[in-house]
Amino acid sequence: MQVALINPNIVTQKGDFFSSGVPYMPVTLAYLAAVLRKKVDVQVIDAFGEDPHRMSTRGDYFVQGLSIPEVVRAVAKSTGHIFTYAGQVVSHVLHLDMVRALRREFPSVPITVVENTQSVVAYAVTHVADDFFSAGATYIITGEVEPRAKQLLEGNSPADIDGLIWQKDGKAVRNKKSLYLANEELDRLPFPAWEMFPVQNYWKLGYAHGPLTEEKYISILTSRGCGLLCNFCIVPETNEGRWRARSAKSVVDEMEHWIRIFGVHEFHLQDLNPTTYKVRIAEMSKLILERGLKVSWKFVAGTKIETMDKETLAIAAKAGCTYVSLSPESGSPRVLKLMKKSFVHSYGIEMVRHMHSLGTTTQACFVLGYPGETDEDLQMSARYCYELAKAGIDELALFIMTPIPGSAAYGTPGLTNFKSIDQLTFSPWWRSDFQKLQRLRMKIYVKFLFWKLFFHPLKLLRQPFYVLTGRFHTKMEQVLFHGLKLWMMARQAASI
After folding, report:
1. Residues of the chain with CATH 3.80.30.20
2. Which CATH homologous superfamily contains domain 2-174?
3. 345 has which bridge partners?
4. Phi, psi at residue 101, to the nearest 5°?
5. Collapsing DSSP states into helix, strand and coil, what is residue 88?
6. Which residues, in sequence order, are bridge partners of residue 140?
7. Bridge partner list, 174
8. Rounded to an integer, what distance in angstroms lies between the CA atom of residue 97 and that of residue 466?
9. Which residues pair with 266 in a beta bridge?
C-alpha cells in the first residue's frame, strides 16, 4: 500500500513576520513518515519545502511553495491513503482548499487530517472538525499521530481508535482521547525521517524559527506536552497537562545521527517545555561533552526557566547550549493569575543575569492584551522588560493575545469578531483594541533598544554585523532578514 503525507504551505499574514510565516520544520509529519515507512510505501509532499522561494498572494496573506494543483498532481495515482498536516492555524483556510482539491481528484481515497499537538501556533482540530469534513476529509486524528495512524492503516474500526474523529450518519463522532506515548515509548520511536523531506530548501532560506547561526540545522523534539494549564494556550487541551520526555541518551543519539547523515551541528529544540526535568538537561549536556560533539543547541520555543538552576545552565552552556527562550508572559502577578500561569519574576531576573554571564543568548516572551488586563498591568510588563534588559536579556517577543481554538480563552466575549480562524495570529488586527496594543508593543521594542544600548552597548552594536553576515544570534535580527526576503519575493511574484 502507498500513502501520501502532505505538509501544507507556510502562510504569512501581511505585516506580521514575527508570529506568522515562520518555517517550522514539520516534526510531527517526519515522525509519522519514519513510523509508517516500516509498513507501507510512503510519499512525502512538502508543499512549502519543495519551493519555499516561490511566493503568491492570497487576500491578506502571502503563501510560499507549490500551488494546490501542483500538490494534487504530485500525489501518486496509486495512493491508498492521504494524510494532511494541520500544522498552523494561519494555514487553515488554505488547508481546507487543499483537502477539497484532493477530494475532487481522489474521490474514493481516505483523507486523514493530522493534528499538531506540539506547537502553540497550531490549534485543536476538534473545534473545526466540521470544516474539514465539509471539505472532504474522512478522518481527523487528535493527539499523537504515530499509534493512531498505524491502527487506521491496519484496518481497525474507526470506533475503536483512540482520539479519532470520524463521521457516522453524517455527524462527527469524537472518540475519547486517552492514549499518550510514555517516556520509554518515545525512546523506541525511530528518529524523524528528515531524509524524506527537502531539508536543503529549508536551509537555503537563511532563516528559521530559532535564530540560525550555521548554514544547516535540524529541529528536534526532546519531549512532548507541558504540565502547565495556561488559559491562552492550546496545549492544555491537546496534551491535557501531560509532559513526557525522551531520555538524554536518545536525544544525544539523534544529534549524533544527524551529524553523520547531514553534517548538521545546529539543533533547534522545538519542545513546548523541554526543561521540566532539569536533571535530564544536565545528563544531555554531560553526554554531549563525553562524546566530544561540537554542537550548538537552542531552546527556541520558550521554556519555564524556574525549572532550571545556575549549575544546569552552566553545564548546558559548556555543552553548546547557546540560546534560551523563556516565557514570563506578563509583568503583572494579577494577570498571571488570570492566565493561570505561574512565573517567579525575581528568579527570572536572576537566571537571565546568570545566562548573560555565561554568554548564552536569551529571549523573553510576553502576551499583551489578555482579557481583564488593565493599563497598569501593561505598564508592569513594560517595567519588567526594563528589568530584564538591565539584567542582560538579548531580545523580547511581544505577542498580542489571540483566542486560538483549543485554548480556554477561545470564545471569550469581545474576542470573537474575527471572520475566519486563520486570522488568529499573534498580531490580531481584528481586535478593537489592536491599534492601542500595537502602539504599546512598538513603544516597548524601541525603548528596549535604548535600554540595551545603555546597559549592554556591545550587544547592540554587534547586531548589525550579525544581520549582514546572516549568522543570527537573536530572532529579532532574523526577523529583519526574514521580512526583507519575503518583501522581495512578494515583489517578484507581483511582477510575473
Report:
1. 208-490
2. Response regulator (3.40.50.2300)
3. none
4. -65, -40
5. coil
6. 113, 165
7. 165
8. 39
9. 296
Angle between helices 434-455 and 457-469 (to 10 degrees): 110
**Placement of cell 506536552 in the chain:** 225
CA 68 – CA 88 distance, rounded (Å) = 17
Using alpha carbons, list the distances in angstroms from residue 293 to 70, 100, 211, 271, 456.
41, 47, 20, 21, 31
- Alpha carbons 260 and 264: distance in angstroms, whole number: 8
pLDDT by residue, tens only, the chain of 496 residues: 899 999 999 999 887 777 788 999 999 999 999 999 999 999 999 999 999 999 998 888 999 999 999 999 999 999 999 999 999 999 999 999 999 999 999 999 999 999 999 999 999 999 999 999 999 999 999 999 999 999 999 999 999 999 999 999 999 999 999 999 999 999 999 999 999 999 999 999 999 999 999 999 999 999 999 999 999 999 999 999 999 999 999 999 999 999 999 999 999 999 999 999 999 999 999 999 999 999 999 999 989 999 999 999 999 999 999 999 999 999 999 999 999 999 999 999 999 999 999 999 999 999 999 999 999 999 999 999 999 999 999 999 999 999 999 999 999 998 999 999 999 999 999 999 999 999 999 999 999 999 999 999 999 999 999 998 999 999 999 988 888 887 788 777 666 5
Q: What is the secondary structure of 296-342 as a DSSP string?
A: EEEEEEEE-GGG--HHHHHHHHHTTEEEEEEEEE-S-HHHHHHHT--
CB atoms within 10 A of CB 28: 26
Rounded Cα distance between 230 and 245, Å, is: 20
Task: Give CATH 3.40.50.2300 domain extents, the chain.
Answer: 2-174
Structural element, H or E, at residue 478: helix 475-495
Report the CATH architecture of 208-490: Alpha-Beta Horseshoe (3.80)
Contact between 124 and 91 (Cβ < 8 Å): no
Q: Which residue has the cell 530584564?
A: 388
CA neighbor of 214 nearest in space, from 496, 466, 482, 491? 466
Is this prediction's pTM over 0.90? Answer: yes
- Please provide the size of the chain in residues: 496
Determine the Cα–Cα distance for residues 226 and 184; give it in Å rounded to an integer: 17
The one-character DSSP state at 106 is -
Q: How far is residue 347's CA from residue 353's CA, in Å, rounded to a whole number?
A: 10
